[in-house]
Write a structure and sequence with these properties.
Number of domains: 2
Bound molecules: flavin-adenine dinucleotide
Low-confidence stretches: 439-449
CATH topology of the largest domain: FAD/NAD(P)-binding domain
CATH class of the largest domain: Alpha Beta
Distance between the termini: 9 Å
Number of helices: 13
Shape: globular
Structural class: alpha/beta
Helix content: 25-40%
CATH architecture of the largest domain: 3-Layer(bba) Sandwich
Mean pLDDT: 93
């Protein structure tokens, strides 16, 4: 139940989730499976559930084992596990026969959609959260036990409506990052939009294409373009000498265990720095072994056949792009010889990564009540609640953007099941403590949409 405009608000929820990707889907499942019911509503900007759709390349595999799904690590008997999904789809035996822990990203997307179908009554799609704000008050010192969330439906010019929340969980995900000074245009794309734009372009016009970056997405796009566009030359522009392998061995993988979050959150700054220094090669700017070998083999095969169309431009950074009409001129600065070179291409894909979620943009005037570290980052408690000061009594939780407090798994899937459970426990525990009943908000008919 929502009011329109940014004025008064008539409906309220125990939990309002912003974004409905895997993180808030895992939270919705944890709330659903909790023994104390609460009212919850989720708002998602996209028109339907979509997990990095632009990079659902046909052969791309997950970088997390199938059991690190939305629920299993919190509740191994959950009906929302990946195994339950496989069973429902009658593929369990064949999935196991593959003898591979890693599904394709397309299959994982199908799993997410299957799980999401149980929550459509709680999610509003095409709805972008635009701001959090304090409700109007007569006594500025009085405790604030709910906040207003302004939501715009139907795109830029859509109407803004408002809901009240005892707790807000911000899970709005990563933001695509372009190289400094480079803007997207008709021939310059970010990898996050890759498949959508590739599907709509004139493939026959792509004779020379460049892919910028040395991470997993970059390597996957290079492989895809090389395989899909026979006759096209693919330039892989790498800041390094070559692709580096993603550390995926058993001891290193423990850095993604749920218990590692305790070590990180409770650890000294020195310990946190060391964890990042030693283990960032598990996920950042690294590529799966299989993809690296695939690319090397293709380049080698080209040499054998004498038809070379995979060019590695190593130790180089793109410093400029210019639309010259029928092509795009790319300026590349090479560390070797410290010199710049230019060449013309028909497409530039910047697989240059993402920025972590930053809740500040949504917090608005509430941010003044949120504690910050000396470096300006938010103080986030172990239960993912932003540390707030009086008079703010309600909970603002974050999933993502906690690399500085909770470590390497912050923006990944490894810990979504356990983290969702921890947030649900924290929210419901506090509601019970305050009111003696989990659903502390006055019952508003239709709240559980
Ligand atoms: C191509 C790619 C592959 C990946 N593969 C893996 C992998 O194999 N394993 C792994 O562990 N991690 C992987 N990751 C990391 C990724 O962050 C997680 O898989 C996962 O998406 C995190 O879930 P999330 O819900 O936090 O964020 P997201 O999946 O990004 O979901 C956030 C949602 O919030 C919505 N949103 C944003 N702003 C608003 C707003 N203001 N109002 C309403 N809605 C909003 C977005 O539309 C989006 O649907 C991958 C990332 C990429 C880019």
């Amino acid at each position: 139940m929502r009011s329109s405009g940014t004025g008064r608000c008539s409906g309220s929820y125990d939990v309002v989730g912003l974004g409905f990707g895997p993180a808030n889907l895992a939270l919705a499942i944890a709330l659903e499976e909790h023994r104390h019911p609460v009212t919850a509503a989720f708002f998602e900007r996209q028109n339907t559930l979509g997990w990095h759709r632009g990079m659902l390349l046909p052969s791309a595999k997950m970088q997390v084992a199938f059991m690190k799904d939305l629920a299993t690590f919190r509740n191994p008997t959950s009906r929302f596990s990946f195994v339950s999904y496989l069973h429902a789809k009658e593929r369990l035996a064949r999935f196991v026969n593959r003898q591979d822990f890693f599904p394709t990203r397309q299959e994982f997307h199908d799993y997410l959609q299957w799980a999401e179908s149980a929550f459509t009554d709680r999610v509003t799609y095409g709805a972008e959260a635009v701001a959090l704000r304090l409700p109007p008050r007569t006594d500025p010192a009085a405790p604030v036990d709910h906040v207003y969330v302004d939501v715009r439906e139907g795109g830029g010019s859509g109407a803004v409506s408002t809901v009240a929340a005892r707790n807000v969980v911000i899970s709005t995900g990563l933001t695509p990052r372009m190289p400094v000074g480079i803007e997207r245009d008709r021939r310059v794309w970010h990898s996050s939009e890759f498949l959508g734009r590739f599907g709509a372009c004139d493939r026959a016009a792509l004779k020379r294409v460049a892919v910028v970056g040395a991470g997993q997405s970059a390597a996957e796009v290079v492989r895809f373009l090389y395989d899909t566009l026979p006759g096209t030359t693919v330039y892989a522009i790498l800041p390094s000498y070559g692709y580096s392998i993603a550390e995926n061995t058993p001891f290193a993988n423990e850095v993604f265990d749920a218990s590692a979050v305790d070590d990180f959150h409770g650890g000294s700054q020195r310990a946190k720095d060391a964890i990042w220094r030693y283990h960032r090669n598990t996920n950042y700017s690294v590529v799966d072994d299989e993809v690296i070998k695939d690319l090397y083999q293709r380049a080698y095969d080209d040499e054998v056949s004498g038809d070379r169309r995979l060019e590695f431009v190593s130790l180089s950074r793109v410093t400029g792009v210019k639309d010259t009409g029928d092509a795009t001129q790319v300026t590349v600065h090479s560390l070797v010889g410290d010199q710049a070179a230019e060449f013309a291409v028909d497409l530039v894909v910047c697989a240059t990564g993402y920025d972590a979620m930053a809740p500040g943009g949504l917090l608005g005037d509430l941010d003044a009540h949120c504690a910050r570290h000396q470096d300006g980052s938010h103080v986030v408690e172990r239960d993912y609640r932003l540390a707030t000061s009086s008079p703010l009594n309600c909970g603002i939780y974050v999933q993502g953007g906690t690399e500085h407090t909770h470590g390497l798994s912050s923006s990944l899937l490894s810990n979504v099941a356990v983290r969702g459970g921890e947030i649900a426990d924290s929210i419901i525990g506090r509601l019970l403590g305050e009111t003696g009943s989990a659903s502390g908000t006055p019952a508003v008919p239709g709240n559980r949409r």
